[in-house]
Amino acid sequence: MTGPYIQLYLSRLGAMPEDLSLVQSLQQYGNALSRVVGGYFTDRHGRKKIIWVGTMLVSATYLLMALVSDWRLYAVISSVNSFSLFYQPALESIRADSVALDARGRIYAFIQFLSGLTSSLAPLGGAAVVNALGLVDGVRLGFILSGLVGFAIAVARLKYLEETLPSNNAEGFLEAYREALKLIKSSIASMLVVDVLLNLVGAMTFLDNYYMFYYLGVDKTALGVLATVGGLTGLLFTLPAGFVVDKYGRGLALTWGYILGTLNLLIFVLTPPKTRATLPLLLLSAVIGSIGGPLYGLAHDSLRADLVPKEYRGRVFALLGIPPAIAWSAGAMIGGWMYSALGPQIPFIASLALRILLAPLLIALFKDMTRLIDEQLRDNG
């Protein structure tokens, strides 16, 4: 609900573009650190308890965010919010534990579709609230609503989730992660390289809403419309994307997801500021990106679950999130500096150029890391 307006909200609280980069970087580092702790407890003490406790903590931090009056305090609380996401490896693991390989794309798509039914319309609600109450008060109300919904989700998770991995007291913390690192080096290294590169390049464009509002001249309502159109397009394409991931393989979906993401950024970069063509071009960019997003995302999440054995998932999923988070933080800092020092368009142009230059390498890696799984899917089909 508040997503399209966070950057504008922080700018009203005194943050400059480079400050927005810092906030995002702190969030990434907090989340990366928390995943290490959460991943260990996920594999040693089960999935369910850590999920609902973490959900409660995240919900509480949203309520605190509604009280801040300075971007620095928001940075501190949002970092705590990110650290409270220590339950993410558990949530990712319990989902992977519950789905067979040859149905994973479709089941993941169905789960994503259900969760997106309300979230895809939330930006329009956010636009209405921001227009009625003003940017600052509107975003604060959004935080309060997010917190209350989060508490309800925590209760539902406590009541309905079923444990998929019993508690065990095997090796200690360091030994457990040494085993996880061995698994990553032996079978998942290519996937980690891809994640690092795409997070570095993608984070350079994180000021997109700030850029659209202040440079392209898109108003607050249009930002909500763009987010809603993108969300609904992604929602409508989620189920077909899941079918493609299972029927035609992870490699094809990753490749086309990447190509469509690059086309989406190309149109975004070419969009002129403050003309009649501005909003239509941004809508086209949002639609194309929202078609590529489910293709890439579902294939990526399915492949990660395919490659990691059940008893390692918490730790491996935790470790796989750390280098990309560091890369994302670096990309965000670079993008924020470029925006302020070199001009608003530069980080988006640089990101596009890197995506084009990296395309041959990444497409080759897609084929390499999906080859065995896609052969198994063909055999099963």
UniProtKB/TrEMBL annotation:
Gene3D superfamilies linked to this entry: MFS general substrate transporter like domains
Domain Major facilitator superfamily (MFS) profile positions: 1-371
Keyword Membrane (UniProt): yes
One Pfam family of this chain: MFS_1
Keywords attached to this entry: Membrane, Transmembrane, Transmembrane helix
GO MF terms, alphabetically ordered: transmembrane transporter activity
Matches recorded under SUPFAM superfamilies: MFS general substrate transporter
Protein name, as recorded: MFS transporter
